[in-house]
């Protein structure tokens, strides 16, 4: 007797979700047919798990296309890429075990979307601003550019600029959060990185999506030269499951 085939899980929905999956396919080089596993008032959208599953563009896009297709017709709990269960019975047991929590979260996410904001600060513009505002930084920079300045001067300039950059980017991040929080139900903030001074996901009610987007555009214009806000959305609530 053959062992049960492991299954790839895309999302969890309520039993009354339309589940229109005609125009999408699952993960894998030869994607298996999408189908569902049910237990009580919940369903999980699954396919057979491919042996060649990898973090490749093909599979990532397939994963998200299934979720976006489902989300277009109603609330879903989108699972992270790569969620594989041993078999369908395991998925049914999970639906039963977490039925109350899953149902409650689906109710909370109904009529909501995720918007992601990432902030990028142009390095040259930021450095010019630091030099314009800091007399000590200008002195050190001019001394070093003219061939003078000691190792300690270079170290001092680097520390001064790094501190100023962090302070300015922290203030910008807080300005973004403060401006957009009033339009959202919840937020998930990622730690700042070398690439983004702010990376945050907001959970926004559908009826406030246009208002949120407009506020984001006005904020981007207000922040001025050298600051770019990248807004993605509306999206399935990936960060709020």
How would you characterize this protein structure?
It is elongated and about 75 Å long. It has 7 helices and 9 strands, in the order βββαββααβαααββαβ. α4 packs across α5. With 241 residues, it is of the alpha+beta class. A hairpin with a 2-residue loop joins β2 (35-39) and β3. The longest helix has 30 residues, at 151-180. The model has no long low-confidence stretch (mean pLDDT 87). It has helices at 57-71, 88-97, 99-109, 123-133, 135-145, 151-180, 209-223, and strands at 7-14, 35-39, 42-48, 77-78, 84-85, 112-121, 186-190, 198-205, 227-235. Strands 1, 2, 3, 4 and 5 form a 5-stranded antiparallel sheet that branches. Strands 7-8-6-9 form a 4-stranded antiparallel sheet.
> What structural category arises from helix and sheet content?
alpha+beta
Assess the beta-strand content as a share of residues: 15-25%
Task: Describe the largest sheet.
Answer: 5 strands, antiparallel
The ordered string of helix (H) and strand (E) elements is EEEHEEHHEHHHEEHE
Query: Which percent bin holds the helix content?
Result: 40-55%
Radius of gyration: 24 Å
Q: Averaged pLDDT, please?
A: 87
Number of helical stretches of at least 4 residues = 7
**In one word, what is the shape?**
elongated
Count of beta strands? 9
Low-confidence stretches: none
Distance between the termini: 37 Å
